UniProtKB/TrEMBL annotation:
Species, as recorded: Streptomyces diacarni
InterPro entries given in the database record: DUF4191
This protein's UniProt keywords: Membrane, Transmembrane, Transmembrane helix
Transmembrane residue ranges: 30-50, 56-75
Cited Pfam families: DUF4191
Official protein name in the record: DUF4191 domain-containing protein
Length: 229
């Protein structure tokens, strides 16, 4: 058990260090902000301790709460920095969806057009959510076509559509998870699995993508389809 703990702790510390470096590239003041949060929290608790006659006790509490406050602030700013780096990158919405948490089953790139506007699918207790990233005007038709396909397969299961972006009627990447979690829940856990299984029977974009006839252009690689099917 001791050996296992020794191997896990360096890994966690390394991950924290990497996250800090990534955040600092975007948020140059992160170090000063964390130091300020920690010192202010500690100072306030220590001052209260002197006022009530227990400086040592509240000083220790101040250290612990200071570390907790730093962890909370660091987590939020690291998340903001990560979203800032992903913003506008192809597949950013899929990355957010795949980390949305338990209860959602995500299938990236269920539809794509020649301009590489993409639609991803997530199935959860709120029903089906189709998330598009790319040009909003082109995505309208792509989302409508995919939604029509979903309705034919799942009947009265709710199908929601969202477009990632910063324009009108669009959802910012950093708010995508919150937006989806606020959707009304209409399905039970077993129903979610059943709906997802029915949709997977349709096949995804990569497994259904036609292979062009004739010689393959130099340097072009075939897309990797699902394994083990």
């Amino acid at each position: 058990m001791a050996r296992k703990d020794n191997t896990e702790n360096p890994g966690r510390l390394k991950q924290i260090a990497q996250t800090y470096k990534m955040t600092r590239r975007v948020d140059r003041k992160i170090g000063w902000i964390l130091a300020g949060v920690g010192l202010v929290t500690f100072g306030v608790l220590l001052a209260i301790g002197f006022l009530i006659g227990h400086p040592v006790y509240l000083g220790i509490v101040g250290v612990l709460l200071g570390l907790l406050a730093c962890a909370i602030v660091f987590g939020r700013r690291a998340e903001r920095a990560a979203f800032g780096q992903m913003e506008g990158q192809p597949g950013a919405a899929a990355a957010v969806l795949e980390n949305i948490g338990r209860g959602w089953q995500v299938t990236p790139a269920v539809a794509m057009n020649r301009s590489q506007d993409i639609v991803h699918r997530a199935v959860g207790k709120a029903g089906i959510v189709l998330v598009g990233e790319g040009n909003p005007n082109r995505l309208r038709g792509l989302l409508a076509s995919e939604k029509k396909k979903m309705n034919r397969v799942v009947g009265d299961v709710p199908v929601h559509t969202m477009v990632v972006g910063e324009g009108e009627d669009q959802v910012e990447l950093k708010k995508l998870r919150v937006k989806m979690m606020k959707l009304p829940r209409t399905l039970q856990g077993q129903q979610v699995t059943q709906v997802n299984d029915r949709l997977r029977a349709l096949g995804d974009l990569m497994s259904n993508m036609p292979i062009p006839k004739g010689p393959m252009p130099k340097g072009m690689k075939l897309p990797k389809g699902p394994q083990g099917r």
